[in-house]
Amino acid sequence: MASRGEEILLLAASGLTDKQIAEQLCISTRTVEGHWRRLRESSGTNNRAGLIARHYENSKIQLAEANLALKSQIETLESERIHLQQLSNQNSAILQTEINQLYQEVNRLKQNAKPTDELNSIVIKGNVLAFRILAEAPYNCLYMSDSVRLFGYRPTDFTTNQVPITQLFHPADFATAWSKALAQIESGTHRLERKYRILSKRGEERTILDRCIYEEATPGQPATLSVFAFDITHTNFLDALTDHPNLK
């Protein structure tokens, strides 16, 4: 905020008299004269024209300094944006690696017919939620990994149908996620990828990237979806931050 002396200098530079300045600032003419006196004493300049010219030069210097400071801030923000983008890319690469490793492990288990406990140990170690459901309503849950406890549930909540699998999904996302899966299945794709939100038992919202395998129905065996869901909430936050307009 400009000081009273600076305000008087600006008004005087626009051609106002002391009386007009006093009226505009709602002060007395004597107060205006007092400010002029203090300005002369502090600057060592005895005439008003010199005071106004000096103030103009100082203002230009201050503006140049402010521009330099702003440029420095912009460069700092750009550097931070690049750093955050690099972190986001690294996290995405790590996530993709974990997904590939999980597929390899699951395929190995499937080939070797290892017990469910070993699959549980894999998904817990990788902080992955795995479940297998019927591919049509009411989407009964056939298997749920122990890692669902991270979201406040027990596996038996779902496998005994005490809690419908739809309750795990965000209410606004289930229909969309399922429609996308159906569209991919109808196109002949059996390995699907979806992104949606789930809710913990306490109502906490998490963003999920899932990779699922659709298994067609066979005589005596209904169609199923085997789902491996990765919590990418933190990665999503970085993406949103690096996309923020103030960091571009």
Task: Outline the structure in words.
The protein is α+β, with helices and mostly antiparallel strands. It has 2 domains: 4-65, Winged helix-like DNA-binding domain superfamily/Winged helix DNA-binding domain (Arc Repressor Mutant, subunit A, Orthogonal Bundle), CATH 1.10.10.10; 115-238, Beta-Lactamase (2-Layer Sandwich). The protein contains 8 helices and 5 strands. A 5-stranded antiparallel β-sheet has the order 2-1-5-4-3, with helices on both faces. Helix 2 (18-25) packs across helix 3 and helix 4 (48-112) runs antiparallel to helix 8 (233-242).
The largest sheet is: 5 strands, antiparallel
Radius of gyration: 34 Å
Q: List the secondary-structure elements in sequence, H or E.
A: HHHHHEEHHEEEH
Structural class: alpha+beta
DSSP helix count?
8
Mean pLDDT: 76
Report low-confidence residues grouped into runs of 5 or more: 121-126, 236-248
Q: Class of the largest domain in CATH?
A: Alpha Beta
